[in-house]
Each structure stands twice: as C-alpha cells, then as structure tokens.
Design brief:
This protein is an alpha+beta fold. The chain has one domain: Thiol Ester Dehydrase, Chain A. It has 3 helices and 5 strands, in the order E-H-H-E-E-E-E-H. The longest helix is centred in the N-terminal third of the chain and has 19 residues.
Length: 139
C-alpha cells in the first residue's frame, strides 16, 4: 500500500482523536504498533454505530478478514493523533473494505490501513450480503 491514502472527494469521513495512555507506549518510547490495530478497530466500530440504526446494529455484526497496515511516523507520549476512516464505494457480497489514516499533531501520517470486513448475521454468525442501504449510509 505504501503511498499515502486519502478519502475520495465527496466521500463521508468519520474522525476520532486518540491520546495514548502510558500503557500504550512501548520499550522504544513511542506508541506500540498493536495500539494502532486497536485504534483501527475502535474507529470502525464507532463509525458503524454512528451511521446505523439500532435495529441494524442488533441484527448485523462485522468480523475482520484482513488488516494491511503501513507505519511511518512514531507517535510520542503526550501527542494526540487524529484518525480518519472511510469505506470503499461498493461492497463485494458480504465484504466491505475500510480505509484508515492516523496522523500526528503535525499532520504527518503515523499509520494507515486498508482493512477487509465481512458482515455477518449476528444471530447465526453467517456471512450476509451488504445491502445497498448500508452502503449508502457510509458513502
């Protein structure tokens, strides 16, 4: 993925800020890479909750199929990062790609990710095709 990702013009973007806690800092003195994975998941679930009615949230759930993450700039203790996430223009059956970019306070990219999520029926755990109304709420 190595080139910087940006949301396409007109795409809905969900934003969260993250300030690392002391336990997020690793032996190298910066935010541990595993913390970025947690933040990516936090962004995805918060984005879903902000856009979907309660009945959809109860009916459908998501599982991660794949994370592809680039790390570029260390986020240091006391720095606040801004995370932005958006989804692909279309879903492929039950799969929906999500993009995340986490920038430091200086605007430089700390980490970015392309993730694949699969929508499942919450009751059965079986994959379910992402419906056009769900895609529309995100794009």
């Amino acid at each position: 993925m190595s080139r910087l990702i940006e949301p396409p013009p007109g795409r809905q973007v969900f934003t969260l800020q993250f300030t690392p806690s002391a336990s997020d800092i690793d032996a190298n003195g910066h935010v541990n890479n595993v913390v970025y994975v947690r933040w990516i998941q936090d962004m995805a679930t918060s984005h879903w909750a902000s856009r979907q009615p309660a009945e959809d949230q109860a009916r459908w759930a998501w599982i991660v199929l794949r994370h592809e993450i680039d790390y570029r700039r260390a986020l240091m203790p006391g720095e606040t990062a801004t995370g932005r996430t958006w989804v692909a223009e279309t879903a492929e059956g039950p799969r929906f790609d999500r993009f995340v970019r986490i920038d430091g306070p200086d605007g430089a990219m700390c980490a970015q990710a392309r993730t694949e999520w699969c929508m499942i029926d919450a009751a059965s755990g079986r994959p379910k095709r992402v419906t056009p109304d769900i895609v529309e709420r995100f794009t």
